[in-house]
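testing teh design pipeline on a random one, pls ignore if ur not involved
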């Protein structure tokens, strides 16, 4: 065993020490085994030049003017529900002040004083009642309703006052506008006239300034012409008027307030007197001649100029007017043209507004005569409505 191991070891060293022989493939005829083919030279393909597509020219769009956005609408609260007004309602421009009672001679007048003032209230007419008539609103007015001397309720109109609130029109009060008058009866019985004697000369018309006042009129003496009745007293002149207002008795016929004779007065038995000329006004073209007239405040009034000679109508040829009035037309004209005016202010208690008329009239027998007439305008005071 040992010998065999030594032999192997020697052999191994021999193998290691022997030189390695190079292998030549041609010696063994193996030249065919690998012949690399020639590699052709690499020629790169030409790269074409890059020609980009032409970009279109950029043309900016025209800028439009800048418009700011519309502001949001302001919030508006919804309209309140419509307020239904009572029927006949109007805005008050004349405010109640007080009840007025004035007495001038036998006449007592019941009226209402107001002022030209707006207090922001509204009113409507409830009912107009006559003298002595009852109303369902009696006792409801804050100023009450007066009575005449005989106990009858006076005439007038009930008004209801309102104020406007958020909830609508609210009633606040009822007021009574009085508009009435009464005439006291005379306590003196009229005297009976004595029969005229058969030898009495023919009657000569008297020259009367105004119709005679009620009362005792003595009979004319036998053989003498009757005397003219004394004119009634002159009323106190209103403020700002220099002349007194001529008043007439309510029981006397309404005729001219001032007259001027066309001929001088002569003694009885002499030449006859001239005609008695009277002038006045009338609300109708052919109406009766009046010396005074009642009008409603603020209302348009048309007055025709009238004249008489011995009680017979005569033509007014020309007239001129002046005084306390608001003219709504000419202050002069012919007899065929009326005077158009209105009165906006109440006269002082117991007074009236005078209007002077200068009349040129045609006389019955020919010729003409000029007379001056002063008529009285009594203004009533209902509430004015606009």
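output:
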């Amino acid at each position: 065993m040992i010998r065999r191991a030594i032999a192997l070891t020697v052999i191994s060293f021999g193998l290691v020490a022997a030189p390695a022989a190079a292998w030549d493939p041609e010696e063994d005829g193996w030249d065919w085994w690998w012949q690399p083919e020639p590699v052709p030279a690499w020629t790169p393909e030409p790269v074409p030049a890059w020609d980009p597509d032409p970009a279109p020219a950029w043309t900016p769009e025209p800028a439009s003017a800048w418009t700011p956005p519309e502001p949001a609408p302001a919030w508006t609260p919804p309209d309140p529900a419509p307020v239904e007004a009572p029927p006949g309602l109007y805005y008050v421009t004349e405010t109640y002040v007080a009840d007025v009672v004035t007495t001038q001679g036998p006449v007592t007048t019941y009226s209402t004083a107001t002022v030209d003032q707006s207090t922001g209230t509204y009113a409507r007419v409830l009912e107009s009642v006559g003298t002595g008539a009852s109303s369902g609103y009696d006792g409801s007015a804050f100023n009450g309703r007066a009575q005449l001397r005989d106990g009858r309720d006076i005439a007038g109109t009930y008004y209801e006052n309102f104020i406007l609130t958020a909830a609508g029109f609210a009633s606040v009060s009822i007021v009574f506008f009085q508009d009435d008058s009464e005439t006291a009866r005379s306590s003196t019985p009229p005297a009976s006239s004595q029969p005229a004697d058969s030898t009495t000369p023919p009657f000569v018309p008297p020259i009367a300034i105004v119709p005679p006042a009620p009362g005792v009129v003595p009979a004319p003496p036998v053989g003498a012409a009757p005397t003219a009745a004394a004119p009634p007293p002159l009323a106190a002149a209103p403020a700002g008027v220099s002349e007194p207002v001529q008043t007439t008795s309510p029981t006397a016929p309404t005729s001219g307030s001032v007259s001027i004779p066309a001929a001088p007065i002569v003694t009885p038995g002499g030449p006859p007197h001239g005609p008695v000329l009277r002038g006045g006004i009338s609300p109708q073209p052919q109406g009766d001649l009046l010396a005074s007239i009642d009008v409603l405040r603020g209302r348009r009034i048309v007055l025709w100029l009238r004249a008489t000679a011995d009680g017979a109508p005569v033509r007014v040829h020309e007239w001129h007017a002046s005084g306390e009035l608001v003219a709504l037309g000419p202050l002069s004209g012919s007899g065929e043209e009326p005077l158009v005016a209105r009165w906006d202010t109440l006269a002082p208690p117991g007074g009236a507004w005078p209007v002077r008329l200068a009349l040129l009239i045609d006389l019955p027998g020919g010729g003409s005569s000029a007379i001056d007439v002063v008529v009285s305008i009594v203004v009533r005071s209902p509430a004015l409505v606009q």
